[in-house]
Write a structure and sequence with these properties.
The protein is an alpha/beta fold. It has 17 helices and 15 strands. It folds into 3 domains: 2-24 and 282-424, Nitrogenase molybdenum iron protein domain (Rossmann fold); 28-149, Nitrogenase molybdenum iron protein domain (Rossmann fold); 176-276, Rossmann fold, CATH 3.40.50.1980. Helix content is 44%, strand content 17%. Helix 2 links the parallel strand 3 (42-48) and strand 4. Helix 7 packs parallel to helix 9, helix 10 runs antiparallel to helix 11 and helix 11 packs parallel to helix 17. It is globular.
Length: 425
């Protein structure tokens, strides 16, 4: 089925095919792997099964001697049979956890497929525990279930849960810029430096590095999305009166420049000032791309739907590295947030929203692209069939936003092609 792009985009010729069928994705619990590193005094308690625990431990690769800031409260047979009071058991787990880890200031109760199937109300549990433990510990809840979502929506649900608990910004306060999305600290520092030198005084990030530093949000807040999958978070921010600044996402030199310029325009920064501040960074980014353009230009790439980063990545690879897009699949397409990205794609690109994994595998095999971007579950079978792959989850774990990371982003796509060339020799 094809749908018109819609009035919010500037390229009405693009058609979007929707597919519904078997899916192959991680669940939202995976987001804990990068979120627990970002919010340094938070703890993520998954209420789920042993399978949930194994997933998080495997994805994080935590050493046996480490003291991670996540764990799983395991639902066992007694709980499923109704022989135990789940609320009492959860309260006991949380009490023991806080006694052992007094450094925890923000505790997330994270729902899973098992907890949702048995209708465990973690929202009410979080309210009850938060009232009991405040002000030392704040308890929030969100769903990391993978029943109807893809893995990056775990971050969206987490940040959306933070917004109503953040301080309310008053209309009389000075305007502030809010960068939304979990970024590596080094990337966050780079963006803060560039924006500050331009002349933007009040810059906040969501999530903040510490629970007590969550930003004030209100009608004087203008926000930029650093990730395209933060739909619920954006909705919660707009409900607080914050204003979204539409822009390309900060991937590659072009995307980063457009993203920063959207902030500069919103705060009245002259173009001459913007160009002077960003000139050297833009030049370094272009030079870093030149190292990989020769290898990637003309190569054909196929995107399976997985992370929701597919459309901005396709724009970057097509426009800045000259790759040919055979198909761009994405789990969900937010027309308004991605309007600028869609307008920068080639007019003949095949866009697919949703997943029918068998049909997409058939098309990928028929097209024989030089590189396929997919989830871990598809990578090994495709490699065994002779197709080079890139794990899409690596593009979420790795710092790829901003000027200084542009070469690293290109390298992630060049590396599997070099590996394939070496194997063929």
């Amino acid at each position: 089925m094809s749908l018109p792009l819609g009035a919010c985009a500037t390229s009405p010729q693009l058609d979007i095919r929707q597919e519904r069928g078997q899916r192959e994705v991680f669940c939202g619990l995976t987001g804990i792997v990068w979120l627990h590193r970002k919010i340094q005094d938070a703890f993520f308690l998954v209420v789920g099964s042993r399978t949930c625990a194994h997933l998080i431990q495997s994805a994080a690769g935590v050493m046996i001697f480490a003291e991670p800031r996540f764990a799983t409260a395991i639902i066992d047979e007694r709980d499923l049979a109704g022989l135990a009071d789940l609320d009492d058991e959860l309260d006991g787990v949380v009490t023991r956890l806080i006694a052992r880890r007094p450094d925890i200031k923000l505790l997330f109760l994270v729902g899973s497929c098992p907890s949702e199937v048995i209708k465990l109300d973690l929202s009410r549990a979080a309210q009850r525990l938060s009232q009991r433990m405040r002000p030392a510990v704040r308890v929030l809840s969100y769903s990391g279930s993978g029943i109807e979502t893809t893995f990056t929506q775990g971050e969206d649900a987490c940040l959306a849960a933070l917004v109503p608990q953040s301080p309310l910004q008053l209309a009389t306060q000075e305007p502030s810029l809010l960068i939304v999305g979990a970024l590596a600290d080094v990337v966050e520092d780079q963006f803060r430096r560039l924006l500050s030198v331009m002349g933007i005084k009040h810059i906040d990030f969501l999530p903040a590095r510490h629970a007590a530093d969550m930003p004030a949000i209100g009608p004087q807040t203008k926000f930029l999305l650093a990730q395209p999958f933060l739909t619920d978070t954006a909705r919660a921010l707009e409900a607080r009166g914050a204003q979204h600044l539409p822009a390309l996402f900060p991937l590659g030199e072009e995307g980063t420049t457009a993203w920063l310029w959207a902030a500069a325009q919103a705060f009245g920064i002259p173009r001459a000032t913007f160009d002077a501040v960003t000139a050297s960074s833009r030049e370094r980014a272009k030079q870093s791309l030149s190292l990989h353009r020769e290898q990637l230009a003309g190569k054909r790439i196929f995107f399976f739907p997985d992370s929701q980063l597919e459309v901005p990545l396709a724009r970057f690879l097509s426009r800045e590295l000259g790759m040919e897009l055979t198909e761009v699949g994405t789990p969900y397409l937010h027309r308004r947030h991605l309007a600028d990205e869609l307008a920068h794609l080639p007019q003949d690109v095949t866009l697919v929203e949703g997943q029918d994994v068998d049909a997409q595998l058939d098309r990928c095999r028929a097209q024989k692209p030089d590189l396929s971007v997919c989830g871990l579950g598809l990578a090994n079978p495709l490699e065994a069939e002779g197709l080079a792959t890139k794990w899409s989850i690596e593009l979420v774990f790795t710092p790829v936003q901003g000027y200084e990371q542009t070469g690293d982003l290109a390298e992630l796509f060049a590396r599997p092609l070099r590996r394939r060339e070496l194997l063929e020799v």
